[in-house]
Amino acid sequence: MIGCCDSRCSPEVIFNSRPGELFVVRNIANLVPPYAPDAQAHGVSAALEFGVMALGVKHIVVLGHAQCGGIKAFVEDAEPLTPGDFIGNWMKLITPAAEKIGPRGSRPVDKYLTLLEQANVALSLDNLMTFPRLRSKVERGDIRLHGAYFGVATGQLSVRDPASGEFAQVAADEYRRLFARPNF
Fold it and tell me: By mean pLDDT, which of 24-38, 67-81, 116-130, 156-170 is the weakest?
C-alpha cells in the first residue's frame, strides 16, 4: 500500500485491516518516483524492493485522497519552506500528471484538484512499471497493481478501472465484501 502521510487517510483504517495485514509506505502525495538506480537514498524504491522481493506481495495499491495538501501546494506553486526545499523537489514529481490533465483554465479549483489527485495516482501506477523486476512480475501476473481514491470528507472509496482510467465509487456492500478480510 502506497499512501499519503496525511493522518486523515490511514490505509489500515480505510481497508479495515489488522496489524501485519498491510505493508504500508506513506509519503507526501502518495508519490512513486520513477526507477532510478543510482547511489542516492530512495525510500519508496527500497520499500518496493523489500515488499516485492522479500515479502512477496501480490497486490500493490496506490491510495490517493481528496483534499491532498501536497497536490494543493503543487497547484499553488508555493514558496519553498526551507533553503534545501526537500518538499518542493519532491512535488516536482507531480509535473507529468499535471501536464497530462492540462492547465486549470476555467475549471473550478476543487474539480481541478480532484483531477490532479487522481491523475497523480495514475502517474504513480505508471512509475511502478518503470521498475524492471516489478514490471516483469506484473506482466507474468504474479503481482497486480491497483489505484484507489479516498474521499476524506465523505469516507467514500473509489477504485480505478485499469482499462478506462476512471475512478468509480465502491458501493458499501461491495466495500465490506472486498475488504472485510483483506488478503493482499
Answer: 67-81
What is d(CA 87, CA 68) in angstroms, rounded to the nearest whole number? 14
Name which residue leads in pLDDT, 141 or 77. Answer: 141
- Active-site choice (4, 9, 26, 160): 4
Closest residue by Cα to residue 92 from 71, 111, 114: 71
Which candidate in 8, 42, 107, 146 is catalytic? 8
**Scanning the structure block, which residue is given the C-alpha cell 495499491?**
61
- Catalytic annotation, pick one of 5, 6, 9, 126: 6
Summarize pLDDT for 125-134 with one digit per residue, the tens: 999 999 999 9
CB 70 within 8 A of CB 29: yes
5 part of the active site: no
Asked if 18 is an active-site residue, the reply is no
Phi, psi of 32 (to 5 degrees): -115, 110
Our answer to whether residue 8 is catalytic in this structure is yes
State the catalytic residue, choosing from 9, 26, 65, 160: 65
Q: Please tell me what DSSP assigns to residue 51.
A: I
Known catalytic membership, residue 4: yes
Per-residue DSSP letter, 85: -
Active site residue 26: no
Alpha helices in the chain (DSSP H): 11-14, 43-49, 69-76, 86-91, 95-101, 109-128, 132-140, 172-179
- Contact predicate 6/65, CB 8 Å: yes
